[in-house]
Amino acid sequence: MASTLTWQQLRDLKLSELSDAADGWGAASRHADSAREQVDSRMSGPLAKTQESESAKAAVRRLKRLSNNYYYIQAESGLIRGSVDGLATELATQRRHLIEALDDAASLGYTVNENGSIGYPAGGESGLTGEEVPGGTAYGESGRFDSSSPSPSSGKEGLYQQGIGDGGAQFKSPNPHYAKAKDVADRLTYAVLRAQEIDVRYCGALEKLKAPPGLGVDTKTWADVASDIDAVDASATPYLKDKIPLDKSPAERKAWWDHLTADQREEYLSAFPGLIGNLDGVPTEVRDEANRENLKVLIAKLEGQHDDLSKTQLEGLKGIQKKLDEGSSPPMFLLGVGDEGNGRAIVSYGNPDTSTNVSAYVPGLGTTLNGDFADDTVRRALQTQKGAYKYDHSTASIVWLGYDAPGFTEVASTADADKGAPAYRSFIEGIGATNQNKNPHITAIGHSYGSLLVGTAAREHGGIPGVNDIVLLGSPGTGAQTASELNVGKGHVFAASADNDPVSWLPAKSSLLGPAPAIVNSLDDERWFGRDPTSKEFGATRIESGDGPLPLWLSGDGPTPAHSGYFDPDRNPSAANNIAKIVAGRSDHIKAEEPR
Amino acid sequence: MAWEEWEQLKSAAVERHPTHMQLNQLPADPGGSTSGNTAGGAGTLKHSHGPWTRAAGAADDLRTSTGNARTDLSSAHDGVGSGATGLTSLGALRSVLASWEKRLGAVRDECDALGPTLRQVAQDMGEVDVEVAAKADSVKVTGTGKGE
């Protein structure tokens, strides 16, 4: 689809009319939100509670459809609002550039022709004849703009129109008006071309936001909402970049969010839920609200896809949904969710904005967004919180799956940790920014390959922002040779390895290449990714840990029960209790053990 | 759910009517209840304040507010035609608006239909909520000697 917007039309746009329309969608979205609440609280809720007859059940089903319709209207109206606002805002910029060009033309006494070319008067002096150089017409880059004009960035074709007046000779025109007229024409043309591009981009997004007829709302509807969210995000990228400080620090984003009006917050939340839900620096409760909606539509989207990855992720997301529905003590907060890569999920037990102690655990080898993650991995955050709670009630514990972890079967490289480390740093910085306590106590926990990610993040200049303590569990190495490289100060790096955890014995890569059997080399302290953090030379505090159960072939309890047992107060009480103390800020009470 | 299905369920509810009539007649039953029911009769059952009636009221409210939301949304676009001349997006926005006007209209009509329907069910069922029905049931049980 092409845009045929002319400079005259761009000039005459009344963008406040578009803004009014956007406000109309905002109002429609708000109405639908409150209508849905009314259906649930005044209609289906009481009927479901007090009536058991078939007609009541049927009515509740029909009311559920009504409620879903309102939710659908709320979600899509929010997206339409964002699109129309984006369109109006981006066009306003180009219109301003155009008006400036037109003003310049007017003040210079040039004429703006119907086709956007600029007529200029005679001026200067011909070196050849000594006479005044005649006036002419300057064309903007890309020449006469029409729907078939190439954009300025696509090449220099049409820089000068063929067969018009003095053609290329004008380039070195001794008439001083020429260069000025050319500049005005260029700016005019560029503004119009940009406006056309904006028009086309948002037109594409809007086309997707039509409602199908009838009252039907099914899983396909939510899948459409999911892809509409993506489409609006993609189309509105320049608007987003302009409005939302994506390239700023989490602290600056926090300040930005704090200064928004309630109306603006609502717009961003409803128009860009995927973005706001995963934006570090946005307060936890806002992220949680956005992500609960994101989760719903993601589930619907994946239900419509039948590849293995989608099915696996779906299992994980449904597991998380189930946990959210069941409720918990402490309450859960969904700080991130997504289907990029192998899938993303960040879950907190307890509110990390209000808690004094916050821990963020990075899971490792073989972790992916699946049923096991929702069940076992997420439980580790709960175990951490419950353990630390005994020492300090004000504790929130997070599991952070914000990266693609390598699988057990891959020969792991540092690539995944390198990729994930900046995201983890940003996340932790966000926690520091949104935490309402003066001096929150933040603990980074890396388990297995996650300890390499934590190590990689910590080795960056300045360490992981705001982190006080680092705990490395079942580590195959952190990339560091000594604890001091992790930038938390002496006595604040803790490591545990169960003697029956094979991952913590992974020998150095180099030893696998050599002729000597790996088992011999594993007796030294070089591990897959650097020195064993529980070794004396590394210089961390080795916290007491049980040996853990024997591997599968001896215990029959999963392939590597010792590797996955550190958080479990039943399977490894000493390690779990030590983790709890560190997270609660009582690391002076831990039980240490001799380094390996 | 299709409208027909709803109608079927509704008539099924009506068919069960005799049971409820029986409940209503309980006070007059010679079963010998001497409770206060005799004085109030059917009038002691919550006819007009039950959940069905309240839900019907909510449906009426939503019909009105949804109709207004639709009108407001349409008029928010009044100036767009003249303000956005030349934009390809204008055509897209118009068809987006038209599609949602239809959806909002369908939702409003659904509320419109739900109001009377819920009210009818309320009437058919004598708006006996579970609590009241349970009380009535216990009376009936002693009366008919069904035991536990």
Describe it for me?
- The complex is a heterodimer of chains A (596) and B (148).
- Chain A has 2 domains: 1-211, no CATH class; 340-589, Rossmann fold (3-Layer(aba) Sandwich), CATH 3.40.50.1820.
- In chain A, the strands form 3 sheets. An 8-stranded mixed beta sheet of chain A has the order 4-5-7-6-8-9-10-13.
- Chain A has helices at 7-12, 15-50, 54-108, 176-207, 219-235, 237-243, 250-259, 262-271, 273-277, 284-303, 308-326, 371-389, 415-434, 449-459, 509-513, 518-521, 552-555, 573-583, and strands spanning 111-112, 118-120, 136-138, 332-338, 344-349, 357-362, 395-401, 441-447, 467-473, 493-496, 526-527, 530-531, 541-542.
- Chain A is of the alpha/beta class and 596 residues long.
- The longest helix of chain A is centred in the N-terminal third of the chain and has 55 residues, at 54-108.
- Helix content of chain A is 49%, strand content 10%.
- The longest helix of chain B is centred in the last third of the chain and has 37 residues, at 88-124.
- Chain B has a domain at 49-148.
- The model of chain B is unreliable at 1-7, 9-48 and 129-148 (pLDDT under 50).
- The radius of gyration of chain B is 24 Å and the shape is rod-shaped.
- With 148 residues, chain B is an all-alpha fold.
- Chain B contains 7 helices and no strands.
- The chains are: A alpha/beta (596), B mainly alpha (148).
- Chains A and B meet through α1, α2, α3 and α4 of A and α1, α4, α5 and α6 of B.
